[in-house]
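Write out the bound-state structure for zinc ion.
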Amino acid sequence: MQALTPKNLLTWSLSACTRDAEYPPCNCPDCNQKLWSHGFRDRNLENTKIILKRYRCPRCTKVISIKPEGMLDYFQTLLKTMLVTLEHRLTFKSWPHLIPRQRSGHWLRAFYRHHKMHAPDQSPMSYLGHLAKESVNFFDKRSRTKKN
Ligand SMILES: [Zn+2]
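---
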């Protein structure tokens, strides 16, 4: 089996997140050391319990979980769901019924902060389209700082 590169190490298809799946060998994204298997971790995602495979780096002791594509650290909702919710809000000026309003309000404030920082001249709707196309994590602190 081919080792995963640091770029695709953290993503995995959601349906493949099981204990029985064959996980390929991986290298550490920081020091490129071959990672050791480090068990599994339960997480909630989109109101469903999922299992994430974990690896541990024997050199720098970093623990890495393989997450489904679009799953963000510290969030129980996929980025795609957030963007679709925000698109609904911007289009209809109301929230979709399935997502708690308080939670989606948090996403909207983060989106507006990101929009104001990166593309204040662009319309919010077209900037949202850009974020969706590029799969930009608008909660990421690194993307909150303005690029020169
Ligand atoms: Zn390492």
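---
Residues 28, 30-31, 33, 57, 59-60, 62 surround zinc ion (CB under 6 Å).
Residues 2-66 form one domain.
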